[in-house]
Specification:
By secondary structure, the protein is mostly helical. It folds into 2 domains: 64 residues, Fe,Mn superoxide dismutase (SOD) domain (Helix Hairpins), CATH 1.10.287; 105 residues, 3-Layer(bab) Sandwich (minor pseudopilin epsh fold). It has 8 helices and 3 strands. It has a 3-stranded antiparallel beta sheet. Strand 1 and strand 2 form a beta hairpin. The longest helix has 23 residues. It is globular and about 50 Å long. The chain binds manganese (III) ion. The site of manganese (III) ion has 7 residues, from helix 1.
């Protein structure tokens, strides 16, 4: 059973004007699709081929001889999670238990946004910013290249933002902070984070 490219959870033009259909055409249709094609080629005929994507990621993490498999598998997972971390007319304020925990663990929603934006802006080169649940507490993380918190025991990813240049260059060129601001103000899918939080408890 080969790995497949999931559909975007919205139309390609649904995040415009913040993220254009052209960006999603390349980012989902070319980059994400290439990770799927590459992974299928790399695991074909091996013992990893029938495993779940999550198992492939966890079993290849930290193994230099399987770096290529890990990179493509983790990038498939990270991107699928990223599409869900945004929605048309997103932004606004978190509610319910997620809002209470953000206030408790960061001090305020604005303080969370500052920490998340800083993680994204200071991730040198390519990578990801994350909101995660660890030991009952919310934390902001950043990861390099394909690295994902999924491989760390006791961590549940709640939300992610891609800060590879391909995520924003067509719309924002070198202005990564403007992309991050658009993500937090207009795109972030708080409901998705709240669902992940509820499922983790
Ligand atoms: Mn990407």
């Amino acid at each position: 059973m080969a790995f497949t490219l999931p559909d975007l959870p919205y139309a390609k033009d649904a995040l415009a004007p913040h993220i254009s259909s052209e960006t999603l055409e390349f980012h989902h249709g070319k980059h994400h699709a290439a990770y799927v094609k590459n992974l299928n080629g790399l695991v074909e005929g091996t013992e990893l081929a029938p495993k779940s994507l999550e198992d492939v990621i966890r079993e290849t993490a930290g193994k230099p001889e399987q770096q290529g498999i890990f990179n493509n598998a983790a990038q498939i997972w990270n991107h699928t999670f990223y599409w869900q971390s945004m929605r048309p007319n997103g932004g606004g304020q978190p509610t319910g238990q997620l809002a209470e925990m953000i206030d408790r663990d960061f001090g305020s929603v604005d303080a969370f946004k500052d920490a998340f934006a800083k993680a994204g802006a200071t991730q040198f080169g390519s990578g990801w910013a994350w909101l995660v649940l660890k030991d009952g507490k919310l934390e902001v993380r950043k990861t390099l290249n394909a690295e994902t918190p999924l491989t760390e025991a006791g961590i549940t990813p709640l939300l992610t933002m891609d800060v590879w240049e391909h995520a924003y260059y067509l719309d924002f060129q070198n202005r990564r902070p403007d992309y991050i601001s658009a993500f937090l103000e207009h795109l972030v899918n708080w409901e998705f984070a709240a669902e992940n939080l509820a499922a983790a408890q």
